[in-house]
Amino acid sequence: MRGSAEESYSLLPSYCYELERTNPGTLTYIETDAADHFLYFFMSIGSCIRGFKSSMRPVIAVDATHLKCKYKGVLFVATAFDGNRNIYPVAFGIGDLETDAAWEWFLRKLHCAIGDCSNLVVISDRNVSIQHGLRRVFPGASHGVEKWSRAHCDGRRYNVMTTNIVESINSVLRFARMLPVLHLIDEITNLLLTWFSERRDLAMKCHSTLCPDLGEQKLRKRLDAASRMNVVKINDVEYNVLDGDLNGLVHLANRSCTCRKFDLEQLPCKHAIAVCRHLNLNPYSFASSYYTRATWAAAYAESIYPVPPKGTWVIPEHLNNVKILPSVCKVMPGRRKMQRVPSKGEDSRQKKCSRCGVKGHYRNTCKQSVPLKN
Q1: Phi-psi region at 27: left, alpha or beta (left = phi > 0; alpha = psi -120 to 50)
Q2: Of 12, 161, 316, 356, which cross-links 368 as Cys (Cβ 3.0–4.6 Å)?
Q3: Distance between CA atoms of residues 38 and 48, nearest Å
């Protein structure tokens, strides 16, 4: 139904042309070797690029996952976090392996998409190739690897602590990763289309000042805690808040507190909220615009359009003559593995027979003799 894996590579330039035509501002890049064999692919939808620049916190998580198609490879993912705790994909890429060359190529194309982003923080695992690529492509960005704690990170990572948001993308695409490259990309495009449509509707129905699942929820919990604190004025902008534990020194003008939550999250901490109650100020006015419902809605204001069926494509002549061959790799016979191989020392769930209670087999394959009950 989907055609061969080889045909999928040959149609890739035409598909990218239609994707860019239907979604203005979209960036796609295809890299081949001297013999026209596929090397790398990059895609960033125009709506995602503009939404990230206008409405997202400057924190990007990057990771890669293995593909299960005929010619294998890895899928690179760069994603942000919107103000309502949702995944906001920025870019996708395909390469052969997680090498220095592949990661640097992907990160350079990501730089072409988002440009020079001030105060950028990149979160990743401890992959050395990512670290090398970031030093070359984003030298001014802070990188969460050496300092996992946000209190000691060089940049402001808000409440983004891990690459779990990328792992969630990998889980959603677990079946799509078995498809030929063209259909994998089409599945990603359709997934983004659905997410943008659903979240746009949610944002339009929301009537709170802040996003309901992150900003509003956190602030309401802190409002309750702040009601039991005493505030001592030091001067017109500094206040000492007594919470019965470590206390907090709040500087309203700088939007900072010694507990560091106000500084790092850009949401009023319980100490800052106590000061606001003491001065009859609205604590919502001290929250960053990244957490507001208006910014959340603006992130999904634009629509993503699907690529029309292949029979309706009108492709320029110079693209029709471009032929891309599959990547050079050894294609092993047989079915692809669907289950991940456990790491050494990792606990794996063992079978247990419900008939005899012995591990290692199931009831229908049990050969143990079980004594009859009297």
Answers
A1: beta
A2: 356
A3: 25
Name residue 160's amino acid: V
> How are the residues of the chain apportioned to helix, strand and coil, as percentages rounded to the nearest 5?
40, 15, 45
């400057």: which residue's tokens?
A: 58
Q: Say if residues 324 and 9 touch (Cβ distance below 8 Å).
A: yes
Separation between Cα atoms, residue 269 and residue 245, nearest integer Å? 15
Residue pair 154/147 in contact by the 8 Å Cβ criterion: yes
Cα first-last separation, the chain: 60
Question: Which strand ranges, in their side-by-side order, compose the sheet holding 238-242?
Answer: 230-233, 238-242, 248-251, 256-257
Q: Name residue, tokens 């063209």.
A: 182
CA-wise closest residue to 43 among 139, 180, 187? 187
Contact present, 104 and 133 (Cβ < 8 Å): yes
How long, in residues, is the chain? 374
Q: What is the residue extent of each domain of the chain?
A: 5-206+298-320, 212-291
Distance CA 87, CA 268 (A): 23
Q: What is the DSSP letter of 129?
A: H
pTM above threshold 0.85: no
Rg of the chain over CA atoms, in angstroms?
Answer: 26
Kindly state the average pLDDT of the residues 218-227.
Answer: 89
Evaluate the CA torsion angle 215, 200, 289, 281 in order and state its sign: negative
- Residue 233's pLDDT is 94
Cβ atoms 219, 269 nearer than 8 A:
no
For every residue of 256-278, DSSP letters joined together read EETTSHHHHHSS--HHHHHHHHH
Q: What is the mean pLDDT of the chain?
A: 85
The CA distance from 78 to 88, in Å, is 9
Phi, psi angles (nearest 5°) of residue 30: -130, 130
Can you tell me the distance from the alpha carbon of 131 to that of 230, in angstroms, rounded to the nearest whole number? 46
Backbone angles phi, psi at 118, to 5 degrees: -70, 145
